[in-house]
Specification:
The structure holds two protein chains of two kinds. Chain A has one domain: Ubiquitin-like (UB roll). In chain A, 30% of the residues lie in helices and 23% in strands. Chain A contains three helices and five strands, in the order E-H-E-H-H-E-E-E. Chain A has a five-stranded mixed sheet. Chain A is globular. The N and C termini of chain A lie far apart (30 Å). By secondary structure, chain B is of the alpha+beta class. Chain B has four helices and eight strands. The chains are: A alpha+beta, B alpha+beta. At the A-B interface, loops of A face helix 2, helix 3 and strand 7 of B.
């Protein structure tokens, strides 16, 4: 699946988008896998309360299933308007 | 209903004039424009707005659809820009048309409250030598509870 990062999450991880092969069943499980990869992921995902997640472009929460998902995006709370 | 996400400036006067034009059943039009504000006392060089192409359009459309379900509206317009903007630039606008003003005002406020916290945009202020992401405000999240 494609994993996308926006705003300071993108800056901390260093890429806007990457392909991730995973068997993780939920967003949380995917986050745990990413955290274990490298320090930059651990830093970006240190405080999940500061992050929001979208699965296939729909806002959801970290318990959500990612079975069959094409696109997961992580970003800080939005500041539109 | 029209939802536009673009980098280019938009012509507020033309959009406002054309909105619901000829809809003689609509007695009220409310427009709101968001403008880049310099909170750094003159140091703001740019306001960079990042967004999530694809999700942005979907989220704004869903918010506009929700407004149409909750209020009696003849038309809804949402325009939101992204990219590098400067103090005084218009970032976004919403317009609502209704038979009566209450629906038009309330729907416009609802659209603004929701698109501040539920549409995937992020602002970064470039001022002096620093660039900082604008933090979401608790008040903006709290504003959603009234709907």
């Amino acid at each position: 699946m494609d994993v996308l990062y926006f705003a300071w999450v993108r800056e901390r991880i260093g890429v806007p988008k990457e392909r991730v092969e995973t068997d993780a069943a939920t967003v949380s499980a995917l986050v745990d896998e990413l955290r274990a990869r490298e320090d930059r992921y651990a830093a970006a995902f240190a405080d999940l309360s500061a992050l929001r997640v979208a699965v296939d472009q729909e806002l959801t929460d970290f318990d959500a299933s990612i079975a069959g998902a094409r696109e997961i995006a992580f970003f800080p709370p939005m500041t539109g308007g | 209903m029209r939802v536009v996400v673009q980098e280019a400036p938009f012509d507020f006067a033309a959009e406002a004039a054309g909105f619901a034009d000829g809809r003689h059943d609509m007695g009220a039009v409310v427009t709101f424009t968001g403008i880049v504000r310099d909170v750094t006392s003159g140091d703001l060089q740019a306001m960079e707005i990042e967004h999530y192409p694809g999700m942005t359009e979907k989220a704004l459309t869903a918010i506009a659809e929700e407004a149409r379900q909750r209020w009696s509206l003849g038309d809804v317009l949402v325009i939101h820009r992204y990219g590098r903007l400067h103090a005084g630039d218009k970032i976004m606008m919403v317009a609502t048309a209704a038979r009566h003003r209450k629906d038009a005002f309330e729907a416009a406020e609802f659209l603004m409250d929701y698109l501040k916290s539920r549409a995937p945009f992020w602002k970064k202020e470039h001022a002096g030598d620093s660039a900082d992401w604008v933090a979401a405000r608790d008040e903006d999240e709290a504003a959603l509870t009234r709907w």
